Amino acid sequence: MKTLLSTKIVSPSQRELLLNAGIGLVEYDAIKVRSLEVAYPEVVECAIVTSQHAVHCILENNIKVSGYYCVGDKTEDLLIKNRQKVLKKAQNSLELAHFISNLEQKDPFTYFCGTRRREEIPSILKAEKVNFTEIVCYETELQEKVFKQTWDGILFFSPSGVESFLISNNLGSSICFCIGETTARTAKKYTQNVVIANSATVESVIAKAAKTLTFHD
Question: Domain 33-140 carries which CATH code?
Fold first, then answer.
């Protein structure tokens, strides 16, 4: 039986997708996220969010946001579910940063991010002289875990997940199934055996893994 390691605990319905394909699954949370106590503004004109964690921080602190610029389908879904106005959804941070930089009317932006946020958005916005404030509202902790066995594939959902797994393990010949381009770029620092999901969702990563491993039988 083919076996997969997921660096995130998945839902029962997501797990079923693999079991129905005859693929074994081991799962754990490679990262742990916790909100930080920071000084939040009461009102924000334009918020930039690249994760659901950032959205939760905003909602939990009752910040009034006029409009959101976000990354990923799941982040957009969470915003819409909570009746928030999405002005733009991009598939990755690089795409979003370039979109904002090219806006004719550049309102002040507030970028809600974590302690391990990537450089694409702040570096591009600074270079294009976009007026923005950065609020670090959550912390991402790497959860070290040693695995003795090898895997046909490993599911990665963030660059931090890749880094966490590699603290005490190596990729060997495993196929790295990544949720998007940003995660894939981190994985490609260590292997070229990388496959990117068709869309930035857990279900898409699982479907890509199931199809690839079944095809390789």
Answer: 3.40.50.10090
